[in-house]
Design brief:
Elements lengths: L3 E5 L2 E8 L6 E5 L11 H9 L3 E5 L19 H14 L5 E6 L1 H12 L4 E7 L16 H8 L11 H12 L10 H14 L29 E6 L7 H10 L4 E5 L11 H11 L7 H12 L3 H13 L14 H7 L8 E5 L5 H8 L3 E6 L2 H10 L4 E4 L13 E7 L10 H11 E12 L16 H5 L6 E8 L3 E8 L12
Parallel strand pairs: 3-4, 3-5, 5-6, 6-7, 7-8, 9-10, 9-12, 10-11, 12-13
Antiparallel strand pairs: 1-2, 2-4, 13-15, 14-15
């Protein structure tokens, strides 16, 4: 999924998801100064392949999320925890399996304490019940203490990409374990971090966010299943910190990661990913929740949303809300006496193929297309007479332009966000051959009604915008809740109309 800015806890935060919304949700919470890229693409993809709906996001002052001036964080630690809940709200996720690393592990603990109804399980990575300076827990490794005693390396010129990249790569080395480091990969990630940041110097604001008073005495009240993952050579919070978490959270399980520091390197993913997948097999979403998640995705990436919905329906996890067991009634009425022999018909967003099957039965050489491969596969099985192809109305094959005597579009434009809807309408218009007809069905709203969705009902001006390029409106009819419209393209000569009657 492409990244998306959402309004969460009063702040603009950038989020991204992996996997199908029909699976249990896993919310990844990064550590201090960390953007969503703290969770590697490959790690997220492997969790998604394990049947999890993975959510990562940029903390405030990182990535594409809201940014404050360096040294002036406009938030406290509890705001960062509430941000995570706001992300779940925005994505229509009532409960998630929360996975936090380092500071993100502390935020995850706070979520389980203060927002217990939103947390299905906890996974705490490189975390601590009290931070690296707790007197009853192991101190930092001597080498790391010497590193800090020597003074932090001078800050780079934060506008110099190359200098910042080297600074970020070097800053991570003292925390790593003995495993070999892929320096080229680390530089590539650091470059992406720089490129996505509004002001990368502001990420250090996390260390100045107040309000992180100890909640250690409350850990015994956590009731959700908890998995503690900790590096066996973690120099910042040695393994004793993970052991303390596992003791103080009832029922928690500890898994030490071999040759691992304060990090989550690819070398441990073969162990860690299956452990997290096994641990997070709770909070299966119900049908209403899955549909709500898909509707949100539809406002971001319609192709992903439609395929996710049809794929979930194929697994019998949800119903496709607009699925009909027969062609739409208005299509039946409009074409019931039409002989389609020798004419070509195109069904836009054909879904499971009922409208295309009906037109093919009238003699039309019929093509139906849909952006969802799953829907196309089902349509091919159900209706052998028409042809079905996977295609996107926003980028259709060039050879379809002017190629169809009849074009049918039922409830498709309204499923697309306003930013791309004009492109879809223009492409549908171009499908109509000289002498051909476009028939259109859409939900209706008044000009002064707010545009909320998906779906987003269309105003009259959007219906009228199908006209153009010699395609003229011959009927625009509105009932209380829907538009029924018809457009015709005149032939360039007077040799006969050729229109479908």
């Amino acid at each position: 999924m492409t990244e998306r800015i959402v309004r969460a806890n009063g702040a603009d935060l950038c989020v991204e998801t992996f996997g199908t919304p029909a699976d249990p949700a896993v919310l990844l919470v990064a550590g201090a100064t960390g953007s969503m890229l703290s969770w590697a693409d490959g790690f997220c993809a492997r969790l998604a392949d394990g049947g999890r709906y993975v959510i990562r996001y940029d903390h405030r002052d990182t990535g594409r999320s809201v940014t404050y001036p360096p040294g002036e964080p406009g938030y406290g630690f509890h705001d960062l925890a509430a941000d995570a809940v706001g992300v779940l709200d925005a994505l229509a996720v009532p409960r998630a399996n929360v996975v936090g690393i380092s500071m993100g592990g502390g935020l995850a603990q706070l979520l389980a304490l203060d927002f217990a109804d939103r947390v299905a399980s906890l996974t705490l990575i490189a975390s601590s019940p009290a931070g690296p300076n707790a007197p009853d827990l192991p101190p930092m490794a001597p080498a790391l203490l010497e590193h800090f005693a020597a003074g932090a390396p001078p800050a780079p010129d934060w506008t110099d990409r190359a200098a910042v990249v080297e600074h970020l790569v070097a800053a991570g080395r003292p925390y790593a374990g003995p495993r070999p480091v892929d320096v080229d990969a680390a530089r590539a990630t650091a470059g992406r971090v720089f490129d996505r940041a509004t002001d990368i110097a502001s990420s250090a604001n996390h260390f100045q966010a107040g309000g992180g008073e100890s909640w250690r005495s409350r850990l015994g009240t956590i009731e959700v299943p908890t998995l503690v993952l900790h590096g066996d050579v973690d120099p910042l919070t040695p393994p004793g910190h993970g052991e303390a978490l596992a003791r103080e959270i009832p029922g928690a399980r500890l898994l030490l990661m071999e040759d691992t520091g304060h990090e989550l390197p690819p070398g441990v993913w073969d162990v860690v990913v299956p452990a997290i997948v096994e641990h997070t097999g709770v909070a299966e979403p119900g049908r209403d929740e899955v549909l709500a998640r898909i509707r949100w995705l539809g406002s971001v990436d319609t192709s992903t949303a439609f395929e996710d919905l049809y794929a979930a329906a194929a697994r019998d996890e949800v119903d496709v809300p607009w699925d009909r067991e027969e062609p739409h009634r208005l299509i039946l009425d409009r074409f019931k006496d039409v002989d389609g022999t020798g004419k070509r018909a195109l069904v836009v967003g054909a879904g499971y193929g009922h409208d295309a099957g009906f037109l093919a039965g009238l003699g039309f050489d019929t093509l139906g297309f849909d952006v969802s491969p799953t829907a196309v596969g089902v349509a091919r099985e159900r209706f052998p007479a028409p042809r079905f192809e996977v295609a996107d109305v926003l980028d259709p094959p060039a050879e379809w332009s002017g190629a169809f005597d009849v074009v049918v579009e039922v409830l498709i434009a309204q499923s697309l966000p306003a930013g791309v809807r004009p492109t879809a309408i223009a492409n549908v218009r171009r499908f109509v051959a000289p002498g051909g007809t476009l028939v259109l069905l859409a939900l209706a709203r008044d000009d002064d009604e707010p545009e909320t969705g998906p779906p987003w009902p269309l105003v009259r001006g959007e219906i009228e915008s199908y006209a153009g390029d010699d395609l003229r409106a011959v009927l625009i009819d509105r009932t209380e809740s829907r538009w029924w419209a018809e457009f015709r393209r005149d032939r360039p000569t007077a040799s006969g109309s050729g229109a479908v009657s």
